[in-house]
Design a protein that fits this description.
Length: about 550
Amino acid sequence: MSSPTWKDSSGRMLLFKRPFHEYSLRGRVTLSQMPLSVTAGLTAFLILTFFPETLMNPLFISFLLSQGAILILCYAVPWDRLPYPSFLVLPLLDLVSIALGREGGQDSLTGISLMAVFPVIWLCASGVFPKTAVAISFFGPLAIIWLPLVIRGDLSGQDLARSLLLPVMMLGIGVSVTVLTLSMIRQQRDLEAKDSQLRGVLDGSKRQERLLNTVLDTVHLGVLAVDADGHDILMNRKQRAHHLLAAPPSNDDPNESQLLVFGPDRTTPVPVEQRPVRRAVLGEEFTDYLVWLGAGSEQRAITTSARPMKDQEGNFAGSVIVFSDVTELVNALAAKDDFVANVSHEFRTPLTSILGYVELMLDDDDGALPDFQRGPLEIIRRNSERLLTLVSDLLSSRNGQLIVRPQAVDVADLVRASVTAALPRATDSGIQLLADAPKRLEAHVDSARISQVLDNLVSNAIKYSPDGGEVIVSLRSEDGRVVCSVSDTGMGMSEQDQEEVFAKFFRAEAVRNSAIPGVGLGLSISKAIVEAHGGSVSLSSEVGAGTTFTFALPA
């Protein structure tokens, strides 16, 4: 066992510079004996100075020698190799030593017996055999006083009663120290138990943190967590790569406003307040917000989604933003649009030629065309017109690029015209088609495009009401806008279908399983037309209860 260190490298004393329990057992035993040893040394100095004749008393000399011997035992005996309570023999020897000193020096100095307080405190503060220690705290000092009286035969009741004060005082001190010690031991055990629990929780948290970091660094998504002030809390390896991609060449540590973040056209910088991280810090929740990061050939298309975090009180505590690289998907969609546009453009010329020659043949008024030939030509013309309409829709749907030429138009007339044109088909399907529009309602719109929207919505309402029912087209003015709704009592749509209904080429599962024709472009084109006017489209639907499409345009 290494000995306790009393000085540091610069010679300064280290005694009491650290908690008592951090010393070795030998050091703690020595420190526990030190107060009595120091007091004994001061006593010897006072005797030598004022009562030198006392040094001739063998009992007092025995007291001093025994104190020195006990101090040497404290330091020399390897107490850690002996049974743990064995060091408590030292305070018992102290009581014997104090008894010798009291008898040898009481004619010179009074109160030597008070030194018994040190071994009493040591015994009671050890926490070992607390009841025995309390008993010794009374009977030990009592023996120091009574044994000499018994040996001398001086056993008067008055002398015995006079000597009870010191043992009672020591008993009170012993009880107080024992109670405090036991209380501290219980607290220490509680703290150790809590410390063990905390260490277990900390180890579990570290394991979870390592697992989380491993998972986040494995996924092919950038993940960024920020606090309510916008400071980064967590950023995985993929997101660090995204951040490095968006950093300007001359700036190694850019802030959000300095990053190269562009809009869908890949050249227009996104305003700071519209950038994904800034929107997330402001508490917004969004999904699939597309931006382009970086510049030049390294530029990448990134979709971002954000979800806010809440504290226990429900207050905003930050946000988690996910970044997904969709460059290949965006390029594939662009290539698909180019392909569709090119093919559609190539289809238009021969279709126009076919339709023109068929119409020339059908417009022959000299009666030379027999009926058995006119019928097939009518079928050719009808299907050619349908195919030409489909080609036009495909061209119009490319990237949502639609040109509108607004002018003052009576939208009520457009509604009535669309309903009138669809009445024969509605009647054939057993559907009651109604128009609920004011006599006149003007707006600055492209009449041909809005008629296309109305025809698409009314046609869909009739098409997806195979069991009959009612279709109502209503028009109204609301807060400076023209609002039109087309409601049916048909098959309706599920919530999942409603989320994708405006996507190009999308058709609901129930529709695909039925015999209802279509390619899934009408609603996509209608939405593009309305948005080109600065308006918006919405819908509400319930499976089996019908659907209502509503579009609103600035008047």
